[in-house]
Amino acid sequence: MTTPTASSSSWKYDVFLTFCGVDIRKKFTHHLYITLKQKGIITFRDDEKLERGKYISQELLKAIEGSKYAIIVILENYASSRWFLIELAKIVECMKETKLIVLPIFYHVDPSHVWKQMRALLEAFAKYQKDPKVNPKDVQEWKVALKEVGNISGWYVNDRYHLSFAK
Q1: C-beta atoms surrounding 166 within 10 Å
Q2: pLDDT by residue (tens digit) across 104-145?
Q3: Among 3.40.50.10140, 1.10.150.320, 3.50.50.60, 3.40.50.300, what is the CATH number of 13-158?
Q4: Cα–Cα distance, 166 to 141 (Å, whole number)
Q5: pTM score, two decimals?
Q6: Whole-number Å distance between alpha carbons of 52 and 9
Q7: I need a labelling partner for 131 at 20 to 30 A (CA). Which of 34, 57, 125, 143 fits?
Q8: CB within 8 A of 100, min separation 6: which ones?
């Protein structure tokens, strides 16, 4: 599969849905995923579309490249997973190169905490910077990607039924 260009209309997926957390997988993002499917929107979600036996990271990166939109559900603990930060960096790369449209949802986290990288996000990055197994260049790339996504207008979810526009 080749990376689609901005003028391409042959995307493999309409939406790449990414999130961090078991609890949110069973609740908010599950409902979002089902709603998108019911509307006929072809959505990639890691537990649904991965082919068994494939190297997971490559499969996910290809799914990002083959998507027109990326919905990123950001929680306070988003930076606690290196894998989600790698996904995020790839999403930002595709946003710049292939015009992937990024739609952030700030789930129980203030959008300003994301772009300022406060609280749990700050703690996660400090931990990575102290870890000799983590490349400092990668940490810097992740921080820049998270700040960039944090600056995109999106939606803020602060309780079970309240969704508001952020920024």
Answers
A1: 18
A2: 999 989 999 998 999 999 999 999 999 999 999 999 999 999
A3: 3.40.50.10140
A4: 24
A5: 0.84
A6: 28
A7: 57
A8: 64, 67, 68, 69, 70, 91, 94
